[in-house]
From TrEMBL:
The keyword Ligase does not apply. This is LegC family aminotransferase. Keywords: Aminotransferase, Pyridoxal phosphate, Transferase. GO terms for molecular function: transaminase activity. It comes from the Bacteria. Belongs to the DegT/DnrJ/EryC1 family. InterPro entries: DegT/StrS_aminotransferase, LegC-like, PyrdxlP-dep_Trfase, PyrdxlP-dep_Trfase_major, PyrdxlP-dep_Trfase_small. It comes from Anaeroselena agilis. Pfam families: DegT_DnrJ_EryC1 (PF01041).
Length: 389
């Protein structure tokens, strides 16, 4: 019987050895405003351009497209709204099923529900903590069938419309096999890239392989606009539609207010976009800091028994948005004790999100075998990861 009594204290010292010493607690992920934030926001206030249009919105969209390498980036009010519209753009409709990870932030799952569609949970793989494409392929050969050029779930009779992988803690999922699965089964691929700005899959920025992808600029993300998000796509026409329906579907005119469909007021205010422009200028420095912190954590945990520091796979360059350690199976029962100790030491670590199928509103949703992710959930601890640490 191995005991990890010593490891508990070693975890605390390992984390502390990687972080600056300070009096107050160290948050999980705090924003960093070290650039031109004040200047750009003052400009918004001085000129009166604080609301739903303005030059910072345009510039922010251009910067995002340029940085990620996609054709079009459309700034919106938050990442959840970006996901909602991304799913609508690929044709997710009332009564469809969308395959999605059980381990994710609630936004991924809720966005599917907002379309009137049904989240169908699938398992993750340990090396990426995201959707396991090989397990998904096997599962689809069991449950899916093609009729009239569409994919159906033969158990529920509902159309399977899309796969919505999420790049967990910034680590890209294995996208190539997911693209193959989508082609084979006529499913649309939408990437929840909310956590993965600055992360690359085989040299391409995340968000490029899905037909549409979503980013988030919430206060805890690598780049923040206070609240905000963006829709990414390489399809010009979808990009045009995305801009149109997120800006109330208004037809351009000097004074007339005509709208050609039910659109959404999902516009990102100029004042938030100004923050985003200043933040994007610092992204390369943020990434360098985050990779340096990850390297320190990796080294510090190398000699702690019962712990594995979670590293990027060979096909990925991760932004290490949230650093994670995994407790060995025999150690997992002590997760909450360790979290308690970390908090007592002012280190605001946290576990993974409660799995989606364990939440009351999604408890009866269709799901595949989720044994890997159920095991992972019990073993994950996210460590303080702010860019300035
Ligand atoms: C942050 C996040 C989102 C979007 O969240 P918003 O707060 O709406 O911007 C979506 N999915 C995941 C996985 C996230 O972490």
């Amino acid at each position: 019987m191995i005991t990890y009594a010593r490891s508990r204290n070693e975890i605390i010292s390992a984390v502390k050895s990687c972080l600056p010493s300070q009096e107050k607690s160290i948050g999980l992920h705090e924003p960093c405003f070290a650039g031109k934030e004040w200047e750009y926001i003052k400009d918004c206030l001085d000129t009166g351009w604080v609301s739903s249009v303005g030059k910072y919105v345009d510039t922010f969209e251009e910067k995002l497209a340029e940085y990620t390498g996609v054709r079009r980036a459309i700034a919106v009010v938050n990442g959840t709204a970006a996901l909602h519209i991304a799913l609508k753009l690929v044709g997710v409709e009332q009564g469809d099923e969308v395959l999605a990870p059980a381990m994710t932030f609630i936004a991924t799952t809720n966005a599917i529900t907002y379309c009137g569609a049904i989240p169908h949970f699938v398992d993750s793989e340990k090396r990426t903590m995201g959707i396991d494409p090989y397990k998904l392929a096997d599962y689809l050969s069991e449950i899916a069938e093609i009729r009239d050029s569409c994919c159906f779930n033969s158990h529920t009779g509902r159309r399977l419309k899309a796969v919505l992988p999420m790049h967990t803690f910034g680590h890209p999922v294995d996208l190539d096999p997911l693209v193959d699965i989508c082609n084979r089964w006529r499913l649309e691929l939408v990437e929840d890239a909310a956590e993965s700005l600055g992360s690359y899959y085989k040299g391409r920025h995340t968000g490029n392989l899905g037909k549409v992808a979503a980013l988030s600029f919430n206060g805890n993300k690598i780049v923040t606009t206070g609240g905000g998000g963006a829709i990414l796509t390489n399809d010009e026409e979808l990009g045009r539609i995305a801009k149109h329906i997120t800006t109330t579907a208004k037809l351009p005119h000097k004074w007339a207010f005509n709208h050609d469909k039910v659109g959404y007021n999902y516009r990102l205010p100029n004042i938030n976009a100004a923050l985003g422009c200043a933040q994007m200028e610092q992204l390369p420095a943020f990434l360098a800091n985050k990779r340096a912190l990850a390297a320190r954590y990796e080294q510090a945990f190398a000699s702690v028994d019962g712990i594995e520091f979670f590293k990027e796979t060979e096909f990925a360059t991760s932004n290490y948005w949230l650093n994670a350690i995994l407790l060995n199976d025999g150690f997992a029962a002590e997760r909450d004790t360790i979290l308690e100790m970390l908090h007592q030491n002012g280190l605001l670590a946290r576990p993974a999100w409660t799995l989606m199928h364990k939440l009351p509103m999604y408890a009866n949703n269709p799901r595949a075998d989720l044994s890997t992710v159920e095991n992972l959930e019990q073993r994950i601890i996210n460590l303080p990861s702010s860019v300035f640490l």
